[in-house]
Write a structure and sequence with these properties.
single chain, two-stranded antiparallel sheet, 9 helices, alpha/beta, 8-stranded mixed beta barrel, disordered N terminus
């Protein structure tokens, strides 16, 4: 072990930087009162903003006076007639008999979309059971694929096609697009491959699902305009999107008897005959 080196400190010499540094606590004590107030207001405003958008906004919207029809724990806007839900393994085991028997007469659930696949090799573990049960209980059914950048469009199309056998009377396939692309060019190329492969295989144009801001940022290519849109936009009187929409995911807070977890509830922009026109022939 090296011995400590003795140093001679000259009187009146410069103090070390550590000795000169003012502690944060002392700096706060020396700060004018108006700055303390300003900082406190800024912190409170930030906390209130975050709390409102994460929690309060949904609670206020959910419990405010309903001018439309109240069902499944939420208020539905006026003017729409056809409704559906979408589910995945996140909803757990579903009591389909209870879902059917408790179907609201004012807001009847007519169609069910369910997650089938994700990426190039993942399959939703409850897809097969939900797929069969929805049909057995008289719901129009549809399947969706969750698109990722981790696999090619061809691989993802193969994953969906190998797991989803659409029949006459089923709804068109849906491509769920939510993840922000790391490589915009590759993202667009592979997404288009997936969509075109599904369209060629099933003989029907897939529906594109995404949320309002995402569409504005990443789906402005005119290619996507040829496909019907399923828009997710919550706590609004109508969805905000630059083009027409076919399905509106209105809320993710639906309380459906027979399903233990909250459920996404969707509104079809049209009549029942118009929905049936979309079905696979």
């Amino acid at each position: 072990m090296a011995s400590a080196k003795k140093t001679n400190k000259k009187p009146g010499g410069r103090k070390s930087s550590s000795a000169r540094r003012t502690s944060p606590r002392k700096a706060m004590r020396d700060m004018p009162r108006w700055k303390h107030i300003l900082i406190a207001v800024a912190i409170s405003a930030g906390a209130l903003f975050i709390s409102y958008h994460l929690f309060l906004k949904q609670m206020i919207f959910r419990f405010e006076e309903c001018n439309g029809t109240k069902a499944y724990g939420v208020c539905f806007p006026k003017g729409y007639l056809v409704f559906g839900i979408d589910i995945s393994h996140h909803q757990g085991s579903i009591n389909w008999e209870k879902v059917t028997s408790s179907n609201s007469k004012d807001v009847p659930i007519s169609f069910v979309y369910m997650k089938a696949t994700e990426g190039g090799n993942h399959k939703d573990k409850r897809f097969k059971k939900n797929w069969d049960a929805a049909s057995e209980h008289g719901f129009m059914r549809g399947a969706y694929h969750y698109f990722t950048e981790t696999s090619s469009g061809d691989a993802q199309a193969a994953n969906f096609i190998n797991n989803v056998k659409l029949e006459t009377g089923d709804l068109p396939p849906v491509v769920d697009i939510e993840e922000e692309p790391k490589d915009a060019t590759a993202f667009s190329t592979e997404l288009k491959k997936l969509i075109l492969r599904l369209e060629d295989h099933y003989g029907v144009k897939p529906i594109i699902y995404s949320y309002s801001k995402y569409i504005g940022r990443y789906l402005q290519d005119s290619f996507f305009d040829d496909y019907k849109l399923w828009i997710a936009h919550y706590e609004v009187e109508e969805p905000k999107v630059s083009r027409g929409w076919t399905i509106w995911q209105y809320t993710d807070k639906g309380d459906i008897p027979g399903i233990n977890e909250d459920v996404d509830i969707n509104i079809f922009n049209g009549s029942m005959p118009q929905l049936k026109e979309l079905l696979i022939k």
